[in-house]
Specification:
- The complex is a heterodimer of chains A (184) and B (310).
- By secondary structure, chain A is α/β, with parallel strands linked by helices.
- Chain A has one domain: Rossmann fold, CATH 3.40.50.2020.
- In chain A, 27% of the residues lie in helices and 29% in strands.
- Chain A contains four helices and eight strands; from the N terminus they run E-H-E-H-E-E-H-E-E-E-H-E.
- In chain A, strands 3-2-4-5-6 form a five-stranded parallel β-sheet, sandwiched between helices.
- In chain A, strand 2, helix 2 and strand 3 form a beta-alpha-beta unit.
- The two termini of chain A are 14 Å apart.
- Chain B has 310 residues and is of the alpha/beta class.
- Chain B is built from ten helices and nine strands.
- In chain B, helix 1 crosses helix 10.
- The longest helix of chain B is centred in the last third of the chain and has 19 residues.
Chain lengths: 184, 310
């Protein structure tokens, strides 16, 4: 019988760590773009949405102007629909603003192969022609399969492919936490 | 999900919820400037209609195009079927092209099921005889949920030619599964035998049947299937069974009125009703597109366990 044992579950970031990282990332975004004018934040379903709205709130607080945030589901743009046994559950896309000519801060919780980001860029382009897309992620765990890199990184965590990174947000999981699981 | 969509009876309430929640996402896509997504790029669908159909075929075809699927329409009067080819050979020939979806409408009940037993492609029933029309029931359910929040506990009256209506059958299966109080309202000649065994209430009086209704679903009088003396005249039918504003007064004030189309104004429904604010007939059209996109999407996952033999 094939048997997977979870031999280790280790916390990498707690609530305070995540709060500080989000604050730093928001400052970096504001610094690099010299303010928040023309910036819109778009979170990728499901893990990026809570992060996007928190980054947008922080940016608003820093610059004292409204920074809109949106949610984007990328299921319809995935490149693995052909090889999956069941289709991914489609979640809500809500892009309530015109993205033409805007700078889009695309947000996800974890960057891994880069395929989700590729799909997200494809999805965004169907909404219009942004002036620029910048990528912000909480965790970069390596193992890219496409030439994609993040502009803002919360934390680099070298991983093996057998490990699982889990990001929990209060909005969905009642707790803010990042942990790693090693499966053998 | 499974390989095929043949009957509402094959779906669990979870399956129905999944189809509707996916359809909500596709409806958002349909409101964008660019209404096309690359989801099913490289897939091929064939619409195999042995019976005339304009709206269902258009709806499927547009759904396929919005998903970037390549589409072939196979209409019987121009096809090899009139030259005597058997159904089995027709399907096998089509499959040889490498088709992923076959959408079938046929005048005989059970044909989509039969085809699903020997075809490798996903089969979607677009209406078979007087049996079922599952995507219609799903789009009707979606429309009801959109307007009323949920189906459970609603009084839903289905009025008209239940006997010949695959739309009614699929809706009865779907809506009772979701916990609605389904009422069937029809003259005795248009009620099928055995329907009382379903979990429904039967009325042969329109006024009593639509009292406190949340939803009234009118059915088309199918003139092409009325050779057997089921009705005297359409005028008389309208007098007793046609939905008018006056007859609707006993329903709930926020009742919604549905019709699967095409409508016969002045036969099963009065113009003053189908053009009123109670009518959700055009919502049904756009929701049909979203539901068919959802079904195609959900059936398209890799069929790793499927053996493809009889």
């Amino acid at each position: 019988m094939l048997c997977f044992n979870v031999v280790m579950k280790k916390e990498l970031l707690n609530e305070n760590d995540i709060g500080r990282i989000i604050s730093r990332m928001a400052h970096e975004i504001v610094e690099r773009n010299r303010g928040c004018k023309g910036l819109n934040v778009v979170g990728i379903q499901q893990g990026g949405v809570a992060l996007a709205s928190r980054i947008a709130q922080k940016m608003s607080a820093i610059e004292n102007i409204e920074v809109p945030s949106a949610s984007l589901d990328i299921s319809f743009y995935r490149d693995d629909l052909d090889i999956r046994k069941t289709q991914p559950v489609v979640r809500k896309t809500n892009v309530p603003f015109d993205i033409n000519g805007k700078t889009i801060i695309l947000v996800d919780d974890v960057i891994y192969t880069g395929r989700t980001v590729r799909a997200a860029m494809g999805a965004l382009m169907d909404f219009g022609r942004p002036a620029q897309i910048q990528l912000a992620v909480l965790i970069d765990r390596g193992h890219r399969e496409l030439p994609i890199s993040a502009d803002y990184i919360g934390k680099n965590i070298p991983t093996s492919k057998a490990e699982i990174i889990k990001v929990l947000f209060k909005e969905r999981d009642q707790v803010d936490q990042v942990y790693i699981q090693r499966v053998e | 999900m499974y390989k095929d969509l043949i009957s509402i009876k094959d779906l669990s309430t979870q399956d129905i919820d999944l189809i509707i929640s996916t359809a909500i996402s596709f409806k958002e896509v349909l409101q964008r400037d660019i209404k096309k997504v690359p989801t099913l790029r490289g897939k091929t669908a064939i619409n195999l209609f042995f019976e005339p159909s304009t709206r269902t075929k258009t709806s499927f075809e547009l759904a396929q195009k919005r998903l970037s699927t390549d589409v072939i329409n196979f209409t019987v009067p121009t096809s090899s079927v009139v030259k005597g080819e058997s159904l089995f050979d027709t399907i096998k020939t089509i499959e040889a092209y490498g088709v992923d979806f076959i959408i079938i409408r046929h005048q005989s009940s059970g044909v989509p099921y039969l085809v699903s037993r020997f075809a490798n492609a996903s089969i979607i029933n677009a209406g078979d005889g007087i049996n079922e029309h599952p995507t219609q029931a799903l789009l009707d359910t979606f429309t009801i949920i959109e307007r009323k929040g949920a189906v459970a506990g609603l009084n839903i009256a289905i009025v008209g030619d239940i006997f010949h209506s695959r739309v009614a059958r699929s809706n009865i299966y779907c809506l009772t599964k979701l916990g609605a109080n389904v009422r069937l309202i029809a003259p005795n000649t248009l009620l099928p035998k055995g329907i009382e065994n379903e979990n429904v209430h039967i009325y042969t009086n329109l006024d009593k049947g639509i009292k406190d209704a949340d939803v009234i679903m009118t059915l088309r009088i199918q003139k092409e299937r009325q050779s057997g003396g089921f009705l005297s005249t359409t005028e008389e039918y309208f007098r007793f069974w046609g939905l008018t504003r006056k007859k609707m007064a006993s329903a709930k004030p926020d009742v919604i009125v549905m019709h699967p189309g095409p409508m016969n104004r002045g036969v099963e429904i009065a113009s003053e009703v189908c053009d009123s604010l109670h009518s959700v007939i055009y919502d049904q059209v756009v929701n049909g597109l979203a539901v068919r996109m959802a079904v195609l999407y959900l059936l398209s996952s890799a069929k790793l366990n499927y053996t493809g033999s009889l």
